[in-house]
Amino acid sequence: MSLSFLPRPVLRRGARSVSGGERLAPVPLSDGDRRLAHMAASLLLAYPDEHAVRAAHEVRAAVGHLPQPVAGRLTGLATALTDGDLAALQAAYVATFDLKRRCTLYLSYYAAGDTRRRGAALLRFAEAYRAVGWEVTRGELPDHLGSVLELSARADGDGARIVGALLAAHRDGIEVLRQALAAESSPWVAAVEAVCLTLPPVDARTLERVAALVAEGPPAELVGLTGLPGFGADGEGGVQPWR
Fold it and tell me: Phi and psi for 54 in degrees, rounded to 5?
């Protein structure tokens, strides 16, 4: 199944080495359809500028053959982006993903929070990209959900298994994000729900970690994180409530 219609490459090929509390039941998908769903979600989770709106038109035209629970969510969000007021969408995007920690798209934050472990977590993401034969461009951090989903869409064989393990390792963070977006009645919850429908079901241990994260938030330790998004030279940007 070709992904050639997709207009936004964020990754560059390198040297190849190898709603709310509702529980979503996984939907059977072929490898090609899973890759398409992940790339579509990656595009729809981008900042809603004119480029993203054009991509949303392409997504809406491409995902119709996917199983309805996945296609319906992706098509609904694509329509909201193509038909909505761009300025209002942009304001909502910033208010959601930049100002609410529970809604961050940076997956390592859920596990490592504001601690020095975040650097090691980011390194593991970067190593996974290199193992698959890709690297992040445009200055984005490698744990950004949109970038990980694009990597999942472009990887195959052993690479697909590596990215699948990466997503599985951060399944609790993705679930917290899904629940937080649902609580905010955010239109972008549809993209995260579509992704969840392509992943294995959430097991009991993951649900326990999700409950703990929702109740307590990730660990906090404002050391060694200057330069990361949300943190100024003095670290004050990280002092925000878990909300």
Answer: -60, -40
Which residues, 6+ apart, have CB-to-CB distance to 129 below 8 Å? 11, 135, 136, 142, 151
* CB-CB neighbours of 240 under 10 Å: 12
Q: Give a yes or no: residue 18 inside a domain.
A: no
Q: Does the global pTM surpass 0.85?
A: no
The CB density around residue 230, as the number of other CB atoms within 10 Å, is 17
Q: Is residue 97 part of a domain?
A: yes
| Residues facing 114 on adjacent strands | 220
Element (H, E) at 29: none
Q: Tell me how far apart the alpha carbons of residues 197 and 85 are, in angstroms, rounded to a whole number.
A: 28
Domain-located, residue 21: no
Largest Cα–Cα separation, the chain: 50
Per residue in 105-130, pLDDT (tens digit) is 999 999 888 778 889 989 999 999 99
Picking from 107, 125, 73, 114, the residue whose alpha carbon sits closest to that of residue 177 is 107
| Contact indicator for 151, 167 with CB cutoff of 8 Å | no
Bridge partners, residue 135, by sequence: 12
Q: Is residue 3 domain-resident?
A: no
Mean pLDDT, residues 54-67 taken together: 97
Work out how many domains the chain is built from and give that number: 1
What is the CB neighbour count within 10 angstroms for residue 166?
21
Look at residues 89, 118, 113, 92 and name the one whose alpha carbon lies nearest to residue 101: 113
Structural domain boundaries, residue 127: 29-238
